[in-house]
Structures are given as C-alpha cells and as structure tokens.
Amino acid sequence: MSDPFPTFEVIPAVDVQDGEVVQLVAGERGTEKRYGEPRAAADQWVDQGAETLHLVDLDGAFEGERVNSAAFEAIIDTADVDLQLGGGIRTADDAVELLDLGVDRVILGTAAVETPEIVGEISEQYPGTVMVSLDAKDGEVVVSGWTESTGLDPAEAAGRYEELGAGAILFTNVDVEGQLEGVNTELVGRVCEAVDIPVVASGGVASVDDVLELRDAGAAAVVVGTALYEGAFTLAAAIEVAST
C-alpha cells in the first residue's frame, strides 16, 4: 500500500452546503459564511498548487445521506489531483460508488463509529482508501455532524481503526474549528503517536505557523479552510514554508 502523503501536504477544504462552499464556526449550522461555487473553488486551489482537495458534503454529514453529489461529481470530472470526500457516506456501497467515480479516499465518520466493520469491508475491495474521521469536542469523539458525544478517546479510537484497516485518520478539533484562533497540538500529537498510518489534522489553523506546528506534532498533512478563504495566508506560501 503506497503512502498517500509521502511528503507533508497543505490541503484546501471545499465544504459544501446547499450547493455552495461554506465554512462553519465550531461545526455549528447557521454560522456559515459562503464562498461561492464549489468547482470554481476547487479549480482555484489546484491552480495555486494543491496536490489534494478535501471535499465535505456538510448537508450529508447532518442529514445522514449524500446531498451535494452533483457539485462533487463536477470536481471529480475535472480536478487532476487526489480527492478525499466525506459527509453522508453511511454504507460500504456508498463508499464504493464514490471510489468507482474516481475519489481517492472516502472519509467515514459516523458510519465508522456506528458500524466499525464497514472500514474493513471497504478496505478489502479498495485497500488504503478509507480515511476515518475522528472529530473531537471537549477531548471526546463526536458524531452526527458534531452533535453527539461518544465518550471515545481520539487516540484509542485511532488505534482501533488502524487495526480494522483504515488507511489514514482525519483528526479534527471541533473546539477550534473555523475560529482562526490557533491549533491544539497536544491532542494531535497523541493521535499521531497512537498509529503508524498517516494522520491528517484539521481545525483552527489561522497562520502558517499553525501549519508548521501541526507538521512538527507529527501530522502527515493539514486541512485548511477558513484561513485560506479569508486570505489569512496564501496556499502557495503555506506549501513553500511547510516544505522547508
């Protein structure tokens, strides 16, 4: 199985709600700021040097089924970079359909917590393609669009999913998500130490220094949303600094 992140990557987020790119504050619906059409955003980030795009169907995450398929299929058809997609993927068939369409990694959150065996089921057909999303609020894993606490410790959960066949972990600190207030490297570091598979960090990135802190904490890549859309720094600048 090849390493999806042979070098550290800065990955732009394309989070979609009601057919538009948005960013939420601390995962709360109703806090969103809108940033236009998804395919245009994807093209912009690819033009600026992105090697991977992080695609999230926010409506799907909250509703429990994929909602913005047309927007993502337009990106899949045109973007010549790696694509990781999550939000509303609840069954192995959902995941396989997306992988067959050309998505490189499927992101499983609620489904992985509620039916852990789905990770192995998908991985048997497509090894290394399952990225398990562990979203932490107050230090515990939360599901269903960040609305329900599970009581699970993120580092312990990451180790469990590695054993089940996950190819990567997406770790999001919901407490700092979308707030441009900086990152929590202690939690990220614990998750990275718990597994041998890549951990992609997300949440709270406000500066290039935050990107470097997450890299130094052991993350294989970092997902950036609000900071890029608000112009806190450019993708090109982050990629350049993170590669040194």
Please explain how this structure is put together:
This protein is α/β, with parallel strands linked by helices and 244 residues long. The protein has a single domain (9-242), classed as Aldolase class I (TIM Barrel, Alpha-Beta Barrel). Helices cover 38% and strands 27% of the residues. It has helices spanning 38-47, 58-63, 69-78, 92-101, 110-114, 117-125, 154-164, 185-194, 208-216, 226-229, 235-242, and strands spanning 9-17, 20-25, 28-34, 52-57, 82-86, 105-108, 130-137, 140-143, 148-149, 168-173, 199-202, 221-224. It has an eight-stranded parallel barrel, surrounded by eight helices. α1 (38-47) packs parallel to α3, α4 packs parallel to α6 and α7 (154-164) packs parallel to α8 (185-194). The longest helix has 11 residues, at 154-164. It is globular, with a radius of gyration of 16 Å. The model has no long low-confidence stretch (mean pLDDT 89).
In short:
With 244 residues, the protein is an alpha/beta fold.
Q: Quick one: overall form?
A: globular
Strand order of the largest sheet: 1-4-5-6-7-10-11-12
The profile of the biggest β sheet is: 8 strands, parallel, barrel
The second-level CATH architecture is Alpha-Beta Barrel
Total count of domains: 1
Order of helices and strands: EEEHEHHEHEHHEEEHEHEHEHH
Could you list some keywords that capture this structure?
244 residues, alpha/beta, TIM Barrel, 38% helix, globular
What order do the helices and strands come in, and which of them pair?
Elements: E1 9-17, E2 20-25, E3 28-34, H1 38-47, E4 52-57, H2 58-63, H3 69-78, E5 82-86, H4 92-101, E6 105-108, H5 110-114, H6 117-125, E7 130-137, E8 140-143, E9 148-149, H7 154-164, E10 168-173, H8 185-194, E11 199-202, H9 208-216, E12 221-224, H10 226-229, H11 235-242
Parallel strand pairs: 1-4, 1-12, 4-5, 5-6, 6-7, 7-10, 10-11, 11-12
Antiparallel strand pairs: 1-2, 2-3, 7-8, 8-9
